[in-house]
Amino acid sequence: MITIKNKVLALSLLTALGFMTSCSDFGNENVTPNAALTPVTSALLTEAITGVPPTTATGALLDGVAGRLTGLAPEPRLFAQYWSQTQYPENSLYSTTFADWSRYYAVTLEDLQTIINYNNDPATKAYVAQFGSNNNQLAIARILKAYIYWVTTDRWGDIPYFGALKQDTQVKYDSQQAIYADLFKELKEASAQFDGGAVFSGDIIYSGSVAKWKKFANSMRMLMALRLTKVDPATAKTEFTAAYADAGGYISANADNALVAYTDANQFRNPDNALFDGRDDYGVSDVLVNKLKDLSDPRLPVYAAPTTAGDYSGLPYGLNRNLLIQYTGANDFSRPGTKILAKTQPGYIITASQMLLAKAEAAVRGWITDDATAAYNAAIRASWEQYGVYDAAKFTAYTTSAKVAPTTADFLAKIGDQRWISLYPNGTEAWTEWRRTGYPDLKPTPYAVNESKQIPRRYGYPNTEPTLNTAAYNEAIGKLANGDKTSSRIWWDK
Fold first, then answer.
1. Within a domain: residue 477?
2. pLDDT above 90: residue 30
3. What is the pLDDT of residue 14?
4. How far apart, in whole angstroms, are the C-alpha atoms of residue 353 and residue 364?
5. How much is the pTM?
6. For residue 185, what is the domain's CATH number?
7. Is 337 part of a structural domain of the chain?
8. Considering just the CA atoms, what is the radius of gyration of the chain in Å?
9. Whole-number Å distance between alpha carbons of 351 and 379
10. Which of 70, 180, 280, 306 has its CA 20 to 30 A from that of 237?
């Protein structure tokens, strides 16, 4: 794992220069002799991970694997009830009707596809090999491309996939089932593609470590498999056990966590730091604060900041504007903790705690023979160590308490609760896992303004699709039970 700052300071310029080509009508007259005619693939990889640096002092990294839109988007955190809004509660009341995916396709996926294209093209592969062996570049790009497509399809459902990134404007939506099947294939093939050549120099997640990238790919396969527990349990078990047994291993220790180390430079800082730069739009919800208090969970002082009175008080979730104004005018409440909002707080993509809980769930389901309780306790410990709150005596008391120690009857529920707690502040993954499992037992706000009055189950398609990709859009929404609404469920959400 290496930092961002020195990798991308001139990234946008390098990317733009990389795509310059000569115009056949004018021969070589408009070719700049100092411009790069072939992309700097290491810079493209770094941009695909971080996103495009902001152009304003208070701006945030938005796109990319580690940008705000992937793991730290505010709306999913509201849906997962990690946070409450302080002033304008529309999104807490589920006013969302659609979301844009252009930054996924036009920036992150395009960067990764360009890396793939230039490493496959006989005319350019020798040149770009200076940034890492062709196979190592292809393997990492394919794994990260699969990750972004996974995040995207889990948000919207059917999306452009097989026909995307080919410069076509009319692209059909592929079924989520077909996309998942291809993602499993891509991850297996990409892991096998690594060779002993030079590492990919733009890798700011694992510094080109083949062993860690294989663990990432296997971990993603395991998490994807769990998504299918309700819609296709046979495939879920097959894919999970194959990834779990793979010789490459999976992320089971914090040393292997997939993360981006943000820096203290504004253009490469933690997106949550930028979110609170001169703003005060969110407080930690009473749902999360009360749960952590009830469990005497030592992560509370990390996740939330104390009030002026020195207490931890969650902001009531889902109040309408009038009630919210009344409450915030008369009460103090906890904002996210200083560690969560620190400029250099890492952006976690997949963690050991997350994977150990996946292992525990697989054991409870009988897919593997490992000790489910041991994996569950190890997951809690990994999360505590991740946030620097582990204490042996407190850990023993916590994991043996009736509110935390699982029984046969409530094992999946307690795994779900601990998954929700440990994933914080990654609202995207927490919301997705809640949709899959129903845990924790979240209740919609009574002031919901959406048509179903329930917590959203998906994003509506971008509002440009009906006019720019009409036929494909109409075909896709015809397959949704309630049309292009947030109440419609994606393929695996049963």
1. no
2. no
3. 37
4. 17
5. 0.94
6. 1.25.40.390
7. no
8. 23
9. 10
10. 70
